[in-house]
Amino acid sequence: MRLKGLWIGLAAVAAASCLAACSGGSSVTKTGDTTAASGTKETAKTDGPKGEESTKKTMDSESGGETAIKFGIHVADPEHQESVTYKIVEAFNEKYKGKYRVEFEAAEKSAHDTSLKLKAADGTLPEIFWLDSASGPEYAEAGYLLDLSGFLSQYPEVDKALDTSVKEAFQDKIQYGLPYQCNVEGFFYNKEAFKKAGVQEPVNGTTYEELLEMIPKFQAAGITPVAQGSTDAYAVWGFLAAMDRYGYSDYIHDILDGKEMFSNENMIKFFEKLEELGKKGAFPSNMSTLSYFDAKTNFEAGTAAMLNTGAWDCAELDEKMGDQIGFWWGPVFSDSSFEQKRAMKVPSAPICVSAKVAEDEKIEKAVYTFLEFYYSKDAAKISYEGSVFPATNYTGIEAADGQYALKAVMNAMKDNWESPAVQPDQILSSAVQTQLYDSMLGVMLGNYTPTEALDKLDKQLSYE
After folding, report:
1. Is the Cβ–Cβ distance between 329 and 202 less than 8 Å?
2. In order of start, what are the domains of the chain with their CATH numbers?
């Protein structure tokens, strides 16, 4: 299995308790810190029958007649960091007040991921939880996740509202998850910066050669062509579609199965483009010290022409930049034989349900009722109001007049460029994923040659 290395390392931290609690002979391991973020609600962890009783009491938790279920989320402050999800949960709690209530179990991502591994092992997973895409198949194989095909068959309207492709993204013998939301990623651009530099705004189909021609014009105007940091290594979203235009999604599974290597002709061409952009001065001279948030601040201030990010930043960009914001899928490449009309509109990491939910009809009904609401048209409206693309395909929901960034993205989407089934980095194990980011940014910075960067990926994959 391509994710076989995911769990290695946890046994030294919690071997005794985890192995005692695991069912079906499967064990979960953990790397790194064992402490969940402060504010994360912990359930009782006791071995044997008493532990099972404690878990059941947690799952059957009721207060004032309301059946309470927990939603494990990957941020420490859902109200401000995932405000759309927070508002959907608040709307659900209001609609079902006195009957059902969803409570967040919140922690920043690394602590959330660590906590889930431990809770999976001792049987105390929250009823619903956000799960990193790379971990989904292994959780499913270990028997920790509920098959949601039963939910979809009971709620045909939800089944219809989720395109086949977004459901297939989270299938591995079972329907182990459903998309949290839809990620739309590319390059936002500052119209005023383009005007100041005398550069024509990019459109779907603008070429890589045309992008290179923009660079000296921006430099002459004192504008950084592409805002980019490197301390938040994951911030390479806009470049993922460009990588896919060199066929990544067509052969990545062959790479993971050992039939092909990262260091192949097409990937070398893509990495050579990243190297060239770096050498030409497309990125800030202090890129090595900048975070994604620093890069975004520079873009919003007008000192950079373009920002590699996703539609999740739409609301902030509206507030900071108003009608001066545009959106572009990124350059197409003449030296690639693969389809160039490729965008990046993909299901984000899945929402999963603990397999233990099936043991209690009352809890299962509460979870299903919440999922029905989460994937409803009412929830989709809340998403669009918050400038977030929902996973569902409801029509007739329009962006408001002041949602300039969202409208720009929706305009780019009108060309119906195809997207991969899954975000390219999310196919990989966490270790290979991390190396991909390091390799891409390392080439941009001039720290690695394309060949060195790809060799590092192949070496990391050999450890899996």
Report:
1. no
2. 11-179+349-385 (3.40.190.10), 183-345+404-462 (3.40.190.10)
Q: To 10 degrees, the CA torsion angle through 233, 234, 236, 237? A: -170
Residue 146 φ then ψ, to 5°: -75, 140
Contact between 108 and 74 (Cβ < 8 Å): yes
SS3 328: strand
pLDDT at 64 (0 to 100): 53
Closest CA to 100 of 71, 124, 133: 71
Angle at the Cα of 329 (from 283 to 197), degrees rounded to 5?
50
- The C-alpha atoms of residue 270 and residue 246 are separated, in whole angstroms, by 7
pLDDT digits (tens, 9 = 90+) for 68-122: 999 999 999 999 889 999 999 999 999 999 999 999 999 998 899 999 999 999 9
Q: Which of 444, 98, 93, 139 is nearest to 295 (CA)?
A: 444
Token pair 């497309």 in the structure block, residue: 282
Strands (E), 182-260: 182-190, 224-227
At 193 the three-state DSSP class reads helix
pLDDT of 112 reads 95
Q: What is the DSSP letter of 341?
A: -
Tens-digit pLDDT profile for residues 214-261:
999 999 999 999 999 999 998 999 999 999 999 999 999 999 999 999
Q: Read out DSSP for 352-418?
A: EEBGGGGG-HHHHHHHHHHHHHHTSHHHHHHHHHTT---SS---S----TT-HHHHHHHHHHTT--B
Block residue for tokens 């207060």: 63
Please provide the distance, in angstroms rounded to a whole number, between the alpha carbons at the two ends of the chain. Answer: 9
- Interstrand relation of 178-179 and 182-190 (parallel, antiparallel or unpaired): unpaired
**Of 59, 64, 292, which Cα lies nearest the Cα of 185?**
292
Amino acid occupying residue 92: F
Bridge-based pairing of strands 174-175 and 182-190 is unpaired
On whether the CB atoms of residues 431 and 457 are closer than 8 A, the answer is no
∠136-390-116 over CA atoms, to 5°? 30
Among the listed residues 105, 149, 99, the one whose alpha carbon sits nearest the alpha carbon of residue 126: 105
Which residues is 418 bridged to in the sheet? Answer: 342
